[in-house]
Amino acid sequence: MRSLWLLHELGLEFEVVTHTLGPALRDPAYLAVHPLGRVPALIDGPVRLFESGAICEYLCEQYDPGTLWRVPGHPERAAWLNWLHFAETMGQHLAALTQAHVVIQPPEARPQIIMKLEAKRLSKTLDVLEAGLDGHDYLLPGGFSAVDTGIGYSLYLAGHFVPLEPYPNVERYFYRLQDRDAWRKSLPGPGEPVILTRPFYAVPEA
Ligand SMILES: N[C@@H](CCC(=O)N[C@@H](CS)C(=O)NCC(=O)O)C(=O)O
């Protein structure tokens, strides 16, 4: 979804090929695109990419004049790179939480300790965002950029596992992001499958 959101921000024409999560992703034809059989993957002419951070950086460099990214030498370049990769750190916790709450079957085998530990670690990343957003509307004081798509999508998932209310800067930021047309266009449509079907996943009592 973060790649889709960025494609919409860039106003590019593109085709989305959807895949059902599970064994279908290990189809040899798809493994030729993404060797781990995961999403997302980008095909752009001869270019094949299968890491969302790299997709973000590539799309910006290739198709954006410098509004959504910060070119080398720009005073916000280092911060742009840092937030770009911080989205992946958040993604690790979100993947672990999704596995622990949803993917692992049967439900009684779900590891409570992982749910607790990863929610705590995710909340630490929210502390970092809360401080990072102090005094400005977007992660970079210079304004909205592609790193807000990566972090914004992570927040969309994070709110399913950790309440966002204790983070006022983060909450306001997330509302601001949801006001964007490109964000709305990247949301799953009615009837489209989603992994997280509940609004919030509390740690079940043992
Ligand atoms: N670091 C990778 C993570 C890719 C990833 O793990 N994608 C998940 C969905 S968010 C996936 O395809 N999972 C399916 C599976 O592991 O079978 C990225 O950001 O692109």
Query: Biggest sheet: strands, sense, closure?
Result: 2 strands, antiparallel
Radius of gyration, Cα only, in angstroms?
Answer: 17 Å
Measured by DSSP, the beta-strand proportion falls in under 5%
- Taken in chain order, the helices and strands follow as HHEEHHHHHH
Coarse morphology: globular
Tally of structural domains: 2
Mean pLDDT: 96
Helix/sheet category: mainly alpha
Number of strands: 2
Tell me which ligands are bound: glutathione
**CATH architecture of the largest domain, please?**
Up-down Bundle
How would you portray this structure in words?
The chain is an all-alpha fold. The chain has 2 domains: 2-63, 3-Layer(aba) Sandwich (Glutaredoxin), CATH 3.40.30; 77-186, Glutathione S-transferase Yfyf (Class Pi), Chain A, domain 2 (Up-down Bundle), CATH 1.20.1050.10. It has 8 helices and 2 strands, in the order ααββαααααα. The chain has helices at 2-10, 28-31, 52-63, 77-103, 112-132, 146-158, 168-178, 181-186, and strands at 42-44, 47-49. The chain has a two-stranded antiparallel ribbon. Strand 1 and strand 2 form a beta hairpin. The protein is globular. The relative contact order is 0.14. Bound molecules: glutathione.
